[in-house]
Prior knowledge:
The protein is mainly alpha-helical and 198 residues long. It has seven helices and no strands. It has helices spanning 7-30, 41-45, 52-72, 78-96, 106-125, 139-161, 166-189.
Amino acid sequence: MRPVPKWALLSSACAPVLLVGGWALAALLEGPAYDPASQTISVLAAYGAAGSWVMTGAFVALGICHLLTAWGLRPAAPAGRAALAGGGAAALAVALLPAPSSGGSLHHGSIVVVGFTLLAVWPVLAVDRGGGAPWGLRPVPSVVVTALMGIGAGWFLIELNRHGAAGVAERLVTCFQSVWPLVVVASCLSRPGDGGPP
């Protein structure tokens, strides 16, 4: 099995920290007008938002982290690595095409849907069907994680359409999606003999 470089642990660990830190700081800059329970993360990066530069930077950093992790996650199946990298590219595209200050945007919404989908399916596409695969690349955990991410994305869409707790649903799903690459990398590096050259 091809080893995972140790720098992939850094890129995968930075992803959730930068994402959560970004939305926390951007919400702080936005002030009490922003409701994190009902409003999406994209609102924080919208044109004219007080913390748009922070949230846009967080999306860029998240995208770069996912791209680097996909590059370093050598034991994963190529389709899964490509989907993770595609999720990273979608985060970069979200930064380049922010939501408008009011109303919706077909371009922004489409990119978000593509990103959510790619980050939800990459675990099952990355499965290593060979014997002795790291825990994070085994079929059962991967299918369960993909199913949970899909359910979370469905919950987010329901909350968004009914103007409910869309912010809560989005944050839970995006946290899960940003943490799972770290879990997979850690499971690969915990195997004896893994952890290739830096």
